[in-house]
Each structure stands twice: as structure tokens, then as C-alpha cells.
Amino acid sequence: MTTMRQTAATEFAGRPGTAREWLDRARRVARLLAADAAERDRHPRPPHAEVRLLKDAGLVTLLGPKAHGGGGERWTTALRVCREVSRADGSIGQLLGYHYLWAWAVRFFGTEAQIAEQEAAYTRGGLFYGGAINPRDAHVVAVDEGDALRLDGRKSFASGGAVSDLTCLLAGLADGRPVFAAVASDAPGLRYNHDWDNMGQRLTESGSLSLSGVRVPWDAALGYTGKSARPLPYGSLSLLTLQLIMTNLYQGIAEGAMEAAAEYTRTTTRPWPYGGDVKESATEEWYILEAYGDFRSKLWATEALIDRVGEELSELLHAPRGAVTPQQRGEAAVRIAAAKQRIIKEGLEVCTRIFDVMGARSTASRHGFDRFWRNLRTHSLHDPVAYKQREVGRYALLGEPPEPTFYS
């Protein structure tokens, strides 16, 4: 990791000026992450150095306004950057994608004044977002104390919070209204419990978060003016954006699995000597060639669908907030659901079948090839894929787009 930091300090001078240059920078970041990805997965620690790398490379402010030193890029680029980083390390790809989502939360829910203030602050400071917004945890309550809100409770998941500068929180008022707010990650009353111990995405610091007397000024509650708020339909795009970030995360993990397996097959896998048709190299084995052809075809297909819907959603995200219609939202939602269900199915198959074409020695723990399956399997359980299939089915059969929920 020290080498990663030393390299980052000298390699990422200046700021990319085009989408292609941003993607090239993301690939360079991915190469640094890939060098010790298996080792970091075996011995996970809070990814402070990895987040520092994202900052040094400028990826953290890719979506930030150019006027404040940001990249001023579009969401199509941000999603591709997330995917490129995920090829090397799914955990860091997730943290970066979630950062983009939470940095955009002020646009989803905030007032024009809040947008101007918060985007300037995070972009100029190169600040990194974590978040604890799981809507299934209805245990964080917001109590009005005059000029501020007091937040108390617990969130089961706080991805990236412990290694972030700002944490995006979701709480509920007594009358049922939601409160979104970003607070300093070291604010008094926040306690990260460091209890993330899952089989995959080990470096996401996604453990639980306890809140005790966390104070949030009313003017920091996104969208509220005079203790009242008028939500825009644009805000419902936040859930679609999260789902498409996940979809790109899975595509990146699957691509990374295939690429790592291909390198191992080219350099290490031996041909099978007992088939009656002995080959000189594993790369001449017909069943190996057939398998990689299948992997590549399936991932090209999912990539094409993901990129198409990414362009569609990006148009909505960069449109005037008041211009988004329910029909546009519904059309994007159903295609995102379709893309997500396909990459989960195809990605898990690729991450499993790579061992068929690498051979028994590839299961040695030092290689860490199982991390690709563990990462994709772990995160793809975020919400049941069967409901995504049902959403697409209702649209295909009845012409009904998905209803906005916290997961669609």
C-alpha cells in the first residue's frame, strides 16, 4: 500500500479534460489496486489508503462543478469509472460509486441554495462521502429541538462511513417525513461499530452505525425550508441511480474475474494429457476456448444493455430537476431492472466457471480468485433479484412500469 501511495503522488498530476481521459485514469487506479487486491482481501483493514488513492487521482470530484475545481463530468462517465475500479477491487468500486450517489443527494433532495453550498464545499475540499440510508432500518428518529434536529438510533449498514469525510444519513420525523442530511463523519454522537464481517466486499466498512444525540441544523436537512419540504419527482431518480451503480459494480467484478482468469490460463494452466488429443498449451484446449467465448459474449451483451440504460438515466440526471416525468422515470426503471437481473445471473456464472478453465491449482488461497464470486454474491443480495424480474415481467406483459419505492 505504501508503494500505491508513492506512485499515486507522482502519477496523477493535473486533471483529465475528457471522458476518455477520466476512464484512462480510472484504469491506472485499477492497476494499482489490482497489484495487491488478493492480499488486502485476505487481511482486510479500513481502506484509508485506498480512499486516499481515489482522492489523489481526482476521481472523488469527477462530478463536481468545474467552477470549484471538479471534473464537471456526466453520470455516464462516473458509472464507467466505477466499473473500471470494480474490475480490480469490488469493495473500492462500491465505495466510489456510493460516494457519487451521496454527493449527488443534495441535487436529489436539496434546495438550490443547499446545492450551491454543499457542492462547492465537497469539491473544493476533495471530500469523500459515506452513508447510512438503509430504509429498512426505521430506528433512527429525528426530534425537533428548535433550530436543530436531534438524531438517535442505529443503522445496520454504514458503507464507507468510517473512512469518509461526510456521512449521509436518513432519519424519520414523528409525523413520518424523511430527513436526509450529510454530517461530518467524526461528528459527536456518531459511533462506527466496525462489525462488518461478511464473506465479500470486505473492505467497504459496511458495518453498523449508532447515533446518540447527533445534531443537524434544520438548514442542513435536505429540501427543508422553514421546517417544510416539497419533494420533487426528480428525487425518485436516486433509487434508480443506486441500482445502476450496483449494476456497473457487478459488471466490473465479472469483467475482472474473466481477465484475471485469462491471465492465469495463459501463463499457468496446463493442457489435459488424458483426452486422446493432447495439446501443447491450455490455450489450445477446445473446451477452454469455448468457455472464454461464452464468457466474453455474455459480458459484451450485459455491457451493451448497461451502457444503453446508463446513457438514458444520465440524460434524466442532468436535465432540469423539474422536467423529469413519471413516464421517463418508469421507462428507465424497467430497463435498469432488466440490466441488473442479467448481470447478476451472467456475472455469477462467470465468477464460478472460471475455475473450470483455470484448473485445480487455481483454488490456492494465495491467488484469491474466489474473491470475485464472494464480492458479487454478497452485494447482489442487496435486494431480491426476483422482484427485478417481476418488474420487467409486469412491464412486458401489462405495460406497467415499476412503481417508485426505496428499491426500484
Summary, kept brief:
This protein is an alpha+beta fold and 408 residues long.
Structural summary, described in words:
The protein has helices at residues 2-11, 19-34, 37-42, 48-56, 75-88, 90-103, 105-109, 112-125, 237-267, 286-317, 326-358, 370-379, 385-398, and strands at 129-132, 141-144, 148-155, 166-172, 178-184, 190-192, 209-217, 224-225, 228-229. The longest helix has 33 residues, at 326-358. Helix 5 packs antiparallel against helix 10 (286-317), helix 6 runs antiparallel to helix 9 (237-267) and helix 11 runs antiparallel to helix 12 (370-379). It contains 13 helices and 9 strands. The chain has a 4-stranded antiparallel beta sheet with strand order 2-3-7-6, with no helix packed on it. A 3-stranded mixed beta sheet has the order 1-4-5, covered by helices on one side. Strands 8-9 form a two-stranded antiparallel sheet. The protein is an alpha+beta fold and 408 residues long. It starts with a helix and ends in a 10-residue tail after the last helix. It has 3 domains: 2-125, Orthogonal Bundle (Butyryl-Coa Dehydrogenase, subunit A, domain 1); 129-229, Butyryl-CoA Dehydrogenase, subunit A, domain 2 (Beta Barrel), CATH 2.40.110.10; 233-398, Butyryl-CoA Dehydrogenase, subunit A, domain 3, CATH 1.20.140.10. The model has no long low-confidence stretch (mean pLDDT 95). Residues 252-382 form the Acyl-CoA dehydrogenase C-terminal domain. Residues 20-116 form the Acyl-CoA dehydrogenase/oxidase N-terminal domain. It comes from Actinomadura litoris. Pfam families: Acyl-CoA_dh_2, Acyl-CoA_dh_N.
